[in-house]
UniProtKB/TrEMBL annotation:
<dbReference type="Pfam" id="PF03435">
    <property type="entry name" value="Sacchrp_dh_NADP"/>
</dbReference>
<feature type="domain" description="Saccharopine dehydrogenase NADP binding">
    <location>
        <begin position="41"/>
        <end position="162"/>
    </location>
</feature>
<protein>
    <recommendedName>
        <fullName>Saccharopine dehydrogenase NADP binding domain-containing protein</fullName>
    </recommendedName>
</protein>
<feature type="signal peptide">
    <location>
        <begin position="1"/>
        <end position="21"/>
    </location>
</feature>
<dbReference type="InterPro" id="IPR036291">
    <property type="entry name" value="NAD(P)-bd_dom_sf"/>
</dbReference>
<keyword id="KW-0732">Signal</keyword>
<dbReference type="InterPro" id="IPR005097">
    <property type="entry name" value="Sacchrp_dh_NADP-bd"/>
</dbReference>
Length: 428
């Protein structure tokens, strides 16, 4: 779920602009290779919360990049371009129209697809257009079916000699790389085999990412959860299997619930971990109750219908915006790894603002592609052909810009507010 932008009076707007300028001065800029330093990057959904945050983060990381804000609303596009400055422009793009897409991609070096929601989409039109025009590709997909449909284009991408990453946002995305690093450390440093991998996510309110994230949350409630237990694929009811997870200082203990997320399957297959699951929770606590009630009271067919879900979003959005003003938009990701020798380690990422963190995360993947860290083909973030093993540390560092907590490969007691030994329990 995700909080709204508030309309400030002039004095407040000046204060925010000053804060952003100061924030911009503190960002570590990236020196891209000569051949990609002045690349043109098209951000589809660039007038939205996720795309706009990505465009902003990219312009700060790499001021020489030429950012093309892709969308259908010229007024919003002009406002975004005014914010980004002289190295930006707006392009009117309809992602459902092949000709419109290919025209927009004809003179760009990388396309970032942030125009969700991805749930219930039957085609990978942007990826297909990227392959057709030989344009590097990145998406922030958070849907299992879409992500694996994108993977099916791997051979075509290799033939076109383009690099493509799917699920390259914050979660999934950065969380996948965190998991890959935990598994790599377990095998290379401790000479032990991973046994259980658990993704836990928390976002206050709707996270500042707008109606698209709200729609995504509702659509996921209509999907049966796929998890893995000792190598066996199992299916579970969404928003069940609650766990109380300690996200450490600044976030604390939060209830999280099972959801069907693509990193579960990709981590199981690519990292070869036999038991994998993913959970999500939000605040205030009554949002969790509401999500649980929707799962129990509304038919799955209703929650899979994008038009009906859009009506729900329109009804709930004013209430969500009001509560978001109080709840804030803190975000936290915790990835736990348990190994056959009893070793338990975690990775933890927390940020005060999801709307900023998701932009930093997506921009970090975009920069990695421009730096040449990705091979031709379509890859998940945890695949070494997607993000080279030696490039992971730098990607995580860039994604964690401004984080209130970023910890890798530590025992749980070092970060928990109320440390206790983690048992294997009965949950996947």
């Amino acid at each position: 779920m995700a909080p709204s932008l508030l309309h400030f009076k002039t004095a407040a707007a000046v204060a925010v602009a000053s804060a952003k300028a100061a924030e911009n001065d503190n960002v570590s800029r990236v020196q891209l290779p000569d051949k990609t330093r002045n690349s043109r990057v098209l951000v589809l959904g660039g007038t939205g919360r996720v795309g706009g945050s990505t465009a902003t983060a990219l312009s700060k990381l790499c001021p020489d990049l030429r950012i093309v804000v892709g969308g259908r609303n010229r007024e919003k596009g002009a406002a975004m371009v005014a914010t980004l400055g002289k190295n930006s422009e707006f392009a009117e793009v309809n992602i459902n129209n092949k000709d419109s897409l290919e025209a927009a991609l004809s003179d760009v070096d990388l396309v970032v697809h942030a125009a969700g929601p991805f749930q219930q989409s039957q085609k990978c039109t942007v990826l297909e257009a990227a392959i057709e025009t030989q344009t590097a590709y990145l998406d922030v997909c958070d849907d299992t079916n879409y992500a694996f449909r994108a993977k099916s284009f791997k051979d075509r991408a290799v033939d076109a000699n383009i690099s493509a990453i799917t699920t390259g946002g914050i979660y999934p995305g950065v969380s996948n790389v965190m998991a890959a690093e935990l598994v790599h450390a377990a095998r290379s440093e401790s000479k032990t085999e991973p046994e259980r991998l658990r993704f836990s996510y928390y976002t206050a309110g709707s996270g500042g990412a707008g109606p698209t994230i709200l729609a995504t949350s509702f659509l996921l409630l209509g999907e049966e959860v796929v998890a893995y237990n000792k190598g066996q694929k199992i299916k579970l009811k969404p928003f069940t299997g609650m766990l109380n997870v300690d996200f450490g200082k600044g976030i604390g203990k939060r209830d999280v619930y099972l959801l069907n997320l693509p990193e579960v399957r990709s981590a199981h297959e690519i990292l070869e971990v036999p038991t994998v699951s993913a959970r999500f929770g939000t605040a205030p606590f009554f949002w969790n109750w509401g999500m649980e009630a929707m799962t129990n009271l509304l038919p799955a067919e209703f929650l899979r219908d994008r038009s009906k879900v859009q009506q729900l979003v329109e009804w709930f959005d004013p209430l969500v915006r009001a509560v978001d003003g109080i709840a804030g938009e803190r975000v936290s990701m915790r990835v736990d790894l348990e190994c056959t020798n009893g070793r338990s380690t975690l990775a933890l990422f927390s940020h005060r603002r999801l709307s900023v963190a998701v932009g930093n995360a997506t921009a970090a993947f975009a920069v990695a592609i421009l730096e040449g860290s990705t091979q031709p083909g379509v890859w998940f973030p945890e695949e070494p052909e997607g993000i080279a093993v030696e490039a992971r540390e730098e990607l995580l560092k860039r994604a964690a810009e401004g984080a209130i907590a970023f910890v890798m490969n530590k025992p749980p007691w070092m970060v928990e507010t109320d440390p206790k030994e983690l048992g294997l329990g009965i949950y996947v």
